[in-house]
Fold this protein.
Amino acid sequence: MDTVVRTKVKDLLKSEAGQVVLAKGWVRTKRGNKGVAFIALNDGSTINNIQIVVDKTAFPEELLAKITTGACIGVTGDLVESLGGGQAVEIQAKSIELYGECDPMRYPIQKKDITMEYLRTVAHMRMRTNTFGAVLRIRNQMAFAIHQYFHNKGFVYLNTPLITESDCEGAGQMFQVTTLDLTQPLPKTKKGDIDYSGDFFGKQTSLTVSGQLEGELGATALGEIYTFGPTFRAENSNTPRHLAEFWMIEPEMAFYDIVDNMNLAEDFIKSLVKYALDNCYDDIKFLNDKYDPELLERLQGVIGTEFVRLEYTEGIKILEEAIANGTKFEYPVYWGVDLQSEHERYLVEKHFQKPVILTGYPKDIKAFYMKQDENGKTVRAMDVLFPKIGEIIGGSEREASLEKLEARITELGMSRKNLEWYIDTRRFGSCPHSGFGLGFERLLLFVTGMSNIRDVIPFPRTPKNAEY
Ligand code: 4AD
Ligand code: MG
């Protein structure tokens, strides 16, 4: 066994018959009749299994009995052309090494038709299933595609801090980071506030909700940057589209206006979807056939479609007309309202039946840094809305005027203390610039067709859930 080098299943399936090979992996299934056993072996390199054909008379019965679903084995044998359909080659076993048994009575993912809900309760094992293997391979490919996309465009990958003193979105959904002893009464200042001078950083800090503000520092120096890292939101949203810890990609570009920003966002998503179809076809096909028969069609559709570009005000008119014509929404619709997922999905799925980039939002429902329009009412925000998902990207042109930015910060009653460094970008060589954030898991929901965001990240963090 030692002389043969292990080949991954993915490569074995593309290899020529007529050689001795060594495969290692986990048993997916074992079936057989009196004389022969067929083992489907998977090593995670591909959704496809290699079939091992075992002449039962050539192996001890005790060994074969231990080769059950989930067991880990190494098999040396002849790679031969397969007689059965479904695979080009298979291995005729000469020797089998059992690395690890797997008690069929206790193996938590033994059963065939287990639900996604159940798998979330055994998330430490679910990566062994076909579904999660496929999803996580796609996730990996998408991460690579994102870096490649920006690398090819000359963007600089900028690492922004995870621990921060500022609240980028100003929505107060931050997880506090502290080394203060919470078992003791908290130290107080003379004014009665909590005294952070003895805390690790000597000030109040949190986990970041977005790397954008630091990203703007990068863009106004390096030209074009992007971040790609974890972000944290303590919003108590128990929905299939929210995580408390999610990954975000945030490009930020000097000299881009809102139209350049929209063009980049549209091209970016289309390129990623195309990359997925070109490089993850087997995994996507598997998910298509198992869960979502329109997945492939939907992905192909997005590549070939021009996204609709629509003003918020027009969007509200469409929704009001829909209501007049009998459509029922749970939440009210009027100019100034923050759109709910049901509204976004109506526009995308019912009205236009393609992705929509909504712009020109009321300034009162958007963050302080967005460029204010002449009318004093709207800002140059853009949200990219997708079928089945709703908002997949949020972004804007940034307010480049020092006066306007300062006025907005004051108007919103925000503390300037932690933002002076940010305002410096407008004080010193301010420039028009824009950027956006793509939620990585929202993208993966779209690409994999999964219906719950907890199933496109290996270890989801949601309210009341931080296992592992
Ligand atoms: O719209 P958001 O809050 O925008 C920002 O954070 C900006 N600072 C981005 C920028 O302009 N650089 O978030 C951006 C995207 C959303 O469109 C959504 O895809 C995703 O991040 N997102 C979430 N994904 C999963 N779980 C959550 N709780 C999310 N919140 C936002
Ligand atoms: Mg948003």
